[in-house]
């Protein structure tokens, strides 16, 4: 009868070993999955950082373009003002010349 308990003990050890191996395989698989997920997250984070860098550079370029446009608009406003002064001067000269023509035509009659 001593052989039966030894066989049962050996059988229990085998089952215990299989269950431990199964648990270890599950743990290793879980850890592998976690490592893959972590790697994906790190890569996604570095990609996000890269995208933020591109966005920052683009924003700086847009800001420069806006500043340049503002400067151009200021210059155009100054030119417009000067052109208005010139137009007024030309209109006065045209009015003055028509008055002179009228006076000249009166004198020549």
**Tertiary shape:** rod-shaped
Strand content: under 5%
Number of strands: 0
Low-confidence stretches: none
Compute the separation of the termini in Å: 158 Å
Largest sheet: none
Structural class: mainly alpha
Which short descriptors sum up this protein?
rod-shaped; 97% helix; 1 helix; mainly alpha; 109 residues; single chain
Question: How would you summarize the topology of this molecule?
Answer:
Blueprint: H1 3-108
Subcellular location: Lysosome membrane
InterPro entries: BORCS7 (IPR032143)
GO cellular component, one term: lysosomal membrane
Protein architecture, described:
This is BLOC-1-related complex subunit 7. One of its GO terms (cellular component) is BORC complex. Belongs to the BORCS7 family. The protein has 109 residues and is mainly alpha-helical. The chain has one helix and no strands. It has one helix at residues 3-108. The chain is rod-shaped and about 150 Å long. The protein starts with a helix and ends with a helix. 0% of the residues are buried. The mean pLDDT is 86.
């Amino acid at each position: 009868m001593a052989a039966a308990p030894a066989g049962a003990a050996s059988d229990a050890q085998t089952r215990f070993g299989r269950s431990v191996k199964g648990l270890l395989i599950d743990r290793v698989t879980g850890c592998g999955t976690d490592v893959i997920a972590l790697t994906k997250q790190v890569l996604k984070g570095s990609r996000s950082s890269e995208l933020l860098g591109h966005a920052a550079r683009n924003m700086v370029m847009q800001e420069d373009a806006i500043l340049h446009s503002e400067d151009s608009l200021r210059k155009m406003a100054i030119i417009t003002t000067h052109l208005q002064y010139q137009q007024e001067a030309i209109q006065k000269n045209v009015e003055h010349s028509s008055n002179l023509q009228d006076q000249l035509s009166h004198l020549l009659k």
